[in-house]
Amino acid sequence: MECKDTTGDTKDEAQLMESSFVSELEGTLLKDPNSFSYFMLVAFEASGLIRFTLLLLVWPLIFLLDMLGMGDVGLKLTIFVTLAGIRESEIESVARAVLPKFYMDDLNIEAWRVFSSYNRRVVVTKTPRVMVERFVKEHLRAEVVIGSELVVNRFGFATGFVRDEVASSPSFVGKEQLHHPFIGNWKNDKQFVLPGPVIFHDGRLVKRPTPFTALLILLWFPVGIILATIRILVGLMLPMSIIPYIAQLFGGRIIVKGKPPPPSLAASGTNTGVLFVCTHRTLMDPVVLATVLGRKIPAVTYSISRFSEILSPIPTVRLTRIRDVDAEMIKRELTKGDLVVCPEGTTCREPFLLRFSALFAELTDQIVPVAMNYRVGFFHATTARGWKALDPIFLFMNPRPVYEVTFLNQLPVDATCSAGKSPHDVANYVQRILAATLGFECTTFTRKDKYRVLAGNDGTVSCTPSLDRIKKVLNTFKPFMYTLH
Question: Whole-prediction pTM value?
Fold first, then answer.
């Protein structure tokens, strides 16, 4: 038997075993031996709610086949229902942007401790290789991934079939490796390193959709849409000062820590408004901040949809990403009063802060850092691959969304550029104190880094739908007409 390397090279099994540690992914490196929930993720993120529902309806049959010892048949059925008719590029996109986070959450750290101590690591998986390769190579640092290969037609659509069954019956891999005595007694911590963290991830679902969780999501979805509509309408119609109290009637909650500064006086002469520098968790950060302060403070934005601007209950100032132009625009707004800016330039879901742009530090010394964070149960309120206009809707679809707003003291003058500090030093200082407040970790990653990982672009989006986006939407509704070509 030969083991196929994804680079196209093949090696004899015996030679591979002599120099490598081979481990099965499901049930060994991952705690859960059942990969069904990961297929549910692909169905939802790559195709939509209809396929997600269809796969859940098929689950009782898949479960029955597994109980009857026909797991291979059940796996083939799962692969077909999940992937048939989906573009290979879309599957790869989900595998790159969505799945690694959920795989990492399910990682068996004791198995990883042993696996990581070997120089050459091989992973065998029951699922199609394309679904796991990104995670296994980049985060588990494996050199080889052995798994089944999807059959893709000449139009780039997956047929739902696989070429081989290498991953389903390797004679040298089994779950008994997890229970090998040396795993529980492993003491060689000097060689132990943590797996590569997942800093960026995409997708709308917060929890891994096991059959029970998936059922809850489907039952909640119509209720969530109605609830989100009511919440948005209430937010648009009522005065901002009473929204924090009304929000509790609809299941929402805003937690305020620290002392909000009073409204700045009308700017005149050399006086300017306060610049609120916030961490960026969702599109709603400036809106929530304005709600807490009880007044409509303009927010600096970049590359948000026109639909989001129309729905926004606060004024927005769209940046151009031309430094001199943006600097003048922000200075002009500060002469009118207070302003909100999120210098990360994009959202980050994990407990990390991206690099802060230093532009804000050059423009004023009246800086108030604000630590923003949020908690949701079902749906994420951010996206890099999907439609950003739906971000507020998905936030308000959660049963009990919670926002935390922590006001820090205004920066002393000696910590600003007025005291001779460089803009980068000021920006890094603000990033550090906000990270310390939230218990987050500072990084040097930027907006472009995030979008290159998640979407394969630099994060620049058009205000109008592109032809490629229209084609992508139409493709999601194509039947399986090209599947068997």
Answer: 0.83
